[in-house]
Design brief:
This protein has about 240 residues and is of the alpha/beta class. It folds into two domains: about 180 residues, Ribonuclease E inhibitor RraA/RraA-like (Glucose Oxidase, domain 1, 3-Layer(bba) Sandwich), CATH 3.50.30; about 40 residues. It is about 35% helix and about 25% strand. The protein has eight helices and 13 strands. Strands 1, 2, 3, 5, 7, 9, 12 and 13 form an eight-stranded mixed β-sheet that branches. A three-stranded parallel β-sheet has the order 4-6-8. A hairpin with a 2-residue loop joins strand 10 and strand 11. Helix 2 packs across helix 7 and helix 7 runs antiparallel to helix 8.
C-alpha cells in the first residue's frame, strides 16, 4: 500500500471536524471573504448520517436535461482516469448546463459506485441525483439540489475547469469540506495546513463560550467580557 501523501493525511484530519466549525475557524485564519467559499442552502446532503466529507476537487460540466441531446461520454472516461491518478481522496464537483434545470439528474448508484472505485468519495452538484438507497450502500454522499427520477441523454461538456456551484466558484485542486449542513471550500496555503490545530482551538473556545452564554444567572456584561477573554485565550483575538 502506498504511503499517504501529506495532503491525504491533512484531509483525513479535517474529516474529524464538522463543517460549521471549520467555517467559523476560517473566518479567523484566512482573509478570503466568506461569500466566496460557502455554498448556499440549495445544496443538500442525500445522506445526513454520512460525513463529514473532505477531498480534492475534480470538476466537470454536464447537460442531462436538454431534449434531443446527443450523448457524449468520452469525457466521462477521461474524468475517471483523472480521479484514479489523483493521490488524494476526490470530491467531484459538477455544474449542470442543460436547458431544463429542474430536470437535471447527474448520476445514480451505478455511476456513484464507479466513481467510488477509483477514489471519489462524494459528488457536489447543482443538479439532482437518483438511486439514493443504492448510493448509500457504497457509501457515497451526494450534495445536490434534490432527487430527480430520470434524465435525458448524458452529455459531458467540459472537465477540469472552473465551475460555479452553490453560488461559489470551485477550481480543480480546491479542497472541499461538507456535511449534512452544507458545503464549503477551504483556504489554500498556510491557512489550510494550520486548520486542524486552529479548529481544535475553536472547538475549545466555543465550548467555553457556550457554557457561559447558557447561564441565566450571568449578566450580559459578564457574557460579553467572557467571550472577549476566551477569544484572546484561544488565539482568535483580532
Amino acid at each position: 500500500m502506498n504511503k499517504p501523501t501529506p495532503l491525504t493525511t491533512l484531509i483525513q484530519q479535517l474529516t474529524e471536524f464538522d463543517t460549521a466549525l471549520l467555517a467559523n475557524t476560517i473566518g479567523y485564519v484566512d482573509p478570503t471573504p466568506a461569500h466566496e467559499w460557502y455554498m448556499g442552502s440549495s445544496i443538500k446532503s442525500t445522506n445526513p448520517s454520512l460525513g463529514p466529507t473532505c477531498g480534492v476537487a475534480v470538476t466537470a460540466e454536464i447537460d442531462t436535461s436538454s431534449p434531443n441531446n446527443p450523448s457524449e461520454t468520452k469525457l466521462w472516461w477521461e474524468l475517471l482516469e483523472i480521479i484514479q491518478k489523483t493521490a488524494e481522496p476526490v470530491v467531484l464537483v459538477v455544474k449542470t448546463v442543460g436547458s431544463r434545470p429542474d430536470h437535471e439528474c447527474v448520476m445514480g448508484d451505478g455511476m456513484g459506485k464507479m466513481l467510488n472505485s477509483v477514489g471519489c468519495n462524494a459528488l457536489v452538484t447543482d443538479g439532482g441525483v437518483r438511486d439514493v438507497v443504492g448510493l448509500n450502500t457504497v457509501p457515497f454522499v451526494a450534495y445536490c439540489s434534490g432527487i430527480t427520477i430520470h434524465h435525458c441523454a448524458l452529455r459531458w461538456t467540459k472537465i477540469q475547469g472552473p465551475v460555479e456551484v452553490g453560488g461559489i466558484t470551485v477550481r480543480p485542486g480546491d479542497i472541499i469540506h461538507a456535511n449534512n449542513e452544507g458545503v464549503i471550500k477551504l483556504p489554500a496555503g498556510p491557512a489550510l495546513a494550520n486548520l486542524p490545530e486552529k479548529a481544535i482551538a475553536m472547538r475549545g473556545f466555543e465550548h467555553k463560550t457556550h457554557m457561559l452564554w447558557r447561564q441565566p444567572g450571568a449578566t450580559l456584561e459578564e457574557k460579553k467580557t467572557g467571550v472577549m477573554q476566551y477569544l484572546k485565550d484561544y488565539g482568535f483575538s483580532k
